[in-house]
Amino acid sequence: MADFYQNGIITTLHNLSDRPLEDLERELMQFSRKRPMTLILPSLFSELEGDALPNIVEHLKKAPYLSEIIIGLDRADEAQYRHALKFFDGLPQHHRVLWNDGPRLRALDAELAKHGLAPKEPGKGRNVWYCMGYALASGRGESIALHDCDIVTYDRSLLARLIYPVANPQFNYEFCKGFYARVADGKINGRVSRLLVTPLLRALKKCIGAREYLDFLDSFRYPLAGEFSFRKDVLNDIRIPSDWGLEIGVLSEMHRNYANNRLCQADIADLYDHKHQKLSLDDQNQGLSKMSVDISKAIFRKLATQGEVFTPETFRTIKATYYRIALDFVETYNNDALMNGLTLDIHSEERAVEMFARNIMVAGQTFLDKPMETPFIPSWNRVVSAVPDVFERIEQAVEEDTAEFLARAK
Fold this sequence. Notes:
The protein is α/β, with parallel strands linked by helices. The protein contains 15 helices and 10 strands. α2 links the parallel β2 (37-44) and β3. The model has no long low-confidence stretch (mean pLDDT 93).
């Protein structure tokens, strides 16, 4: 059970009483009359063949307060798209599958690229961005939640607690970030958050001094959680990265666009586990290695927009400071694990810290070498100004795909 302590500079909504799910869903049904709710599911086709997503779909069938479910489907050919239509057909809510690799959405993507408005690389960020565009186009949801499709410990209470803060008309929150304990199979997980993000934020505070942005990020108990919710108006102006910096990028945009009292985080699960990325010690373009580079760059870029000046010497100092702090955290987490009867591989933890330290330098050098790099996907407000009918065309493409292939899928 969580404590009630309010750490940091944003509101934390705890799970203090294990309130029955039925009570939450009864309220959400009432809220849905004023604030209809949408769920976004960014998915790879491979996740349809795993164990997690079928279970998620079974739980979602029992969430009647949802007005709409939007599934972004990546890495799927035509036969796989037809399979996806059949796979999700049992959902009682209005739902649509965005075939991101299909000819209609690819044609629209190519036109946006001519204007310099399309995402520059494939991945979760691109998938989420197009799902956000479809949510704006359909207009069915006022409160929108997003979570991953590989959560093996999923039950629908996670969704209820995630969307509640932005669905309750008495609350003024525009955005809610989910958090949870990354503990499963007798061990502590979440290495990138524990051993990169938190130590890096603490190192930056020591090296460049106190910054409200650093305090803001450090207020989130699990800053890399892929689960968040927001009001529909947030979607118009948000600029998100297309790489592994998505979660940090979203938080940075919330910090830029909204006062802290409009943001919150909520305890959404006692247990949480999902697909784990490989450490990829020898390949900076894969797994946690690439993730650590992208996340570090996202933080450095945000600080630069606030006037912070970085040099190679600065990054060397940050790296050295980070390394010492991170090693201390390894000991802290080991003690925490032992007291709770869990296991922690100290050797593996320290290898991760060594890789993250190297990648902080890689991220810093990349930042210095490419000062004109623009990793953010444009906001939908900007896209609409260049292509005024873009929402109508997204909706038309999805509807035509559905009409053409759904009958063949059955």
